[in-house]
Design goal:
The protein has one domain (59-512): Cytochrome P450 (Cytochrome p450), CATH 1.10.630. The protein has 18 helices and 10 strands. The protein has helices spanning 21-41, 63-74, 93-102, 114-119, 133-147, 149-154, 156-172, 180-197, 207-225, 229-232, 244-268, 278-288, 297-328, 330-344, 359-371, 404-407, 424-427, 453-470, and strands at residues 77-82, 85-90, 178-179, 387-389, 392-394, 399-402, 471-474, 485-486, 492-493, 498-503.
Length: 513
Amino acid sequence: MEPPARPWLAQPRLEIGHTNALVLVALTLIATIYAIAKRKQRLPPGPRGWPLLGNLPSLDPNLHECFASLSKRHGPLMSLRLGTKLAVVISSPELAREVLKDHDVTFANRDVPAAALRIAYGGSDIVWTPHGPLWRLLRKVCVRELLNSTILDSLYTLRRRQTRATVREMLHKAGTPVNVGAHMFLTALNIITNMLWGKDSGDQDDWAKAVEFRRLVGEITELLGRPNVSDLLPLLRPLDLQGIEKKMGGLFVRFDGIFNEIIEQRMKDGGKEGSHDFLNYLLDLKDKGDPKTPLTMTHIKALLMDMVVGGTDTTSNTVEWAMAHMLEKPEIMKRAQEEVDRVVGTSTTVEESHLSHFVYLDAIVKEVLRLHPALPLLVPHCPSAPCTVGGYNVPTGTRVFINVWSIQRDPAHWDRPLEFDPERFLREPKWDFSGRDFEYFPFGSGRRICAGIAMANRMVNYSVATLLHSFEWCLPEGEKLDMAEKFGIVLKKAVPLLAIPEPRLSDPALYEE
């Protein structure tokens, strides 16, 4: 039996403790029965675990790294027993293709954790809703009315306004350290809330509110990624031993209150006259929708939650990682600035129309997403029927993790995989975000691929280009970069990036545009 490593469970460490001989015999019997059943079922190989608890005590908080380490010993198709739940970890492009392409329909469902049920209105959103007519409706609504290229083009003025507001705020703080991720979070938040219901969620100078809001969203994504005893030992769910459901419940109340207030005001006003924002469309669809697949108020609030949580943390984290890597390698930042200057010039500001000309900057963003995919294990899949993957059986209801973080760092497929080298995407320009290449698929693949790729790509590239064009950047004196990662369902920088902006444009009026 493998000894426990750093446990993921809240301290103190979860241990079996002292018990009488009868209980030990019973636990040993359970373990023996499981081992026999595993051989009969022909499950993928994996580490031995504790009786009843399985591999739970041996998991590290950074699950993506822990799974990668275990897969080196047990193979790219590995099974784990997490309490009563069987989990399978996929860590190779070939196996990922089997799951996400060859058996896409079978694996298109989710094993919804208790934390997601709490925050996502019982799993009524795009992320957690089972594959079927309702999921197709929700996704079609979001893509058609919010995330397609035509709609995104029409909302460019909104994105530009918020980004320029961030530039002005950073200009006021020039010469002093700024929290890059927090500024970009508030920018993304205001862009998204304006798209959803036509209103900012906070001013750039309302810093306390911005930091608090980011903390709340960060807590949600962290809790969604944390293994929960309530999911893995259902008999113990009423006890909520880790307090995850209680914490998520508190977060849910705060966000639900915001959504209720906005919706009630909108309905009181009889709809925002002349407005074509997403909320107006959803409320109209609820009243006129197909009775066979009705859109309820619960679905509307769940979609708003998806957009607010999913579109803020992921975007701001990616921009923060990009700036951190360029500060770590100033020659990359200099080359990116030269490209931006060459395309934009110094007598105007960056516009989204310039983005297609930023070849090197685009490679930087792709390299960031290779090393730090927003969702390192994607959202776990769950087969709706027994399936064979890699010659092994994967039973119905298994929680399937695709370790895209590990795949995109695999030395078998990537030269110098741990080095930040944007030029690899210039030498091999085949990689994109379509999910067709299973060596590089940071947004997932198949039916459940991220619906917001186009918006995320625009927001990240535009933000990074604007920061590089508007300012020179350096670290505070004596500070060293800490590039450690912090795992949640969304991967983030463990230590926030503090960097000093200095204006680099000769015409001060450009900062006021």
